[in-house]
Amino acid sequence: MSRLAGAAVRLTVLLGDDEVWHHRPLYSEIVHRAHAAGLAGASVFHGVEGFGASSAVHTARLLSFSADLPVAVVIVDTEPRVREFLPQLQELTGLGLVTLEQLEVVGTRSAD
């Protein structure tokens, strides 16, 4: 993992937690590919409620038995490195919304 400081981008992939790639959760496949590509960092965040292109609301509320809860995969690195990684995302089927946002990294520390 590389240390970041200054200008960077945040790549966010929004998808459902029941999406898979070769019997592995799609979010896990994305994180492992980002790690193998040497990107600075990736995290997965599970949502409790959301909707997307289908307009169906998915929720984790007790009385609802909805599956496919929302998941956000967030990857941060320099813009050239993230853009170099984008073709790997295109290989994966079923991707939801993918966004890129400019940001400034003001500090990092190792959580390991």
User: Any idea what the CATH architecture is?
Assistant: 2-Layer Sandwich
* Fold-level CATH name: Alpha-Beta Plaits
Task: Report the top-level CATH class.
Answer: Alpha Beta
What structural category characterises the helix and strand content?
A: alpha+beta
Q: Overall pLDDT, averaged?
A: 84
- Pick out the low-confidence regions: none
H/I helix tally: 2
Q: What radius of gyration results from the CA coordinates? A: 15 Å
Number of separate structural domains: 1
User: What overall geometry do the principal axes of the alpha carbons give?
Assistant: globular
Offer a concise description of the structure.
With 112 residues, the protein is α+β, with helices and mostly antiparallel strands. Helix content is 21%, strand content 38%. It has a single domain (6-105), classed as Alpha-Beta Plaits (2-Layer Sandwich).
